[in-house]
């Protein structure tokens, strides 16, 4: 739970600097002596940069009409879900949306986390994911 809160804070701090990670996934989240690190900023860009959307299918959000910060926070929720349940999403584009809609249903705990991400509510998202045990 605390590690997930820390992950939200790392992303929030990056967003304050207008930086979008664009590839948040379990393989890029590390525990280093009790501290959480978000690695692989190679796909990152400033939030004002236009161009090709990069990232990992299943975790990254590729809809151009979604705010860059929202894309990162949705990836945080997807990463948290996968870390918590030890379940990776499919990588086939036609399967990804159905996979996540089944797991992040509106009204469910994970659906609340997703709505906080979509609303760019870092505080509520941090509190919500911080409750995970």
Question: Quick gist of this model?
Answer:
By secondary structure, the chain is mostly helical. Helices cover 47% and strands 9% of the residues.
What does this structure look like?
This protein is 47% helix and 9% strand. A two-stranded antiparallel ribbon has the order 1-4. It has a two-stranded antiparallel sheet with strand order 2-3. The chain is mainly α.
Instruction: Give average pLDDT, whole number.
Output: 88
Fraction of residues in β-strands = 5-15%
Spatial separation of the terminal alpha carbons: 6 Å
Amount of helix: 40-55%
SS class: mainly alpha
Which series of helices and strands comes N to C?
HEEEEHHHH
Shape: globular
Q: How many E-type strands?
A: 4
Unreliable stretches covering 5 or more consecutive residues = none
Largest sheet features: 2 strands, antiparallel
Q: Please state the CA-atom Rg, rounded to the nearest Å.
A: 14 Å
Order of strands, main sheet, comes to 1-4
Count of runs of 4 or more consecutive helical residues: 5
Features:
133 residues, two-stranded antiparallel sheet, globular, mainly alpha, 4 strands
Provide the fold topology:
Layout: H1 2-16, E1 19-20, E2 29-32, E3 35-38, E4 45-46, H2 68-85, H3 93-103, H4 109-118, H5 122-130
Helix pairs in contact: 1-2, 1-5, 2-4, 4-5
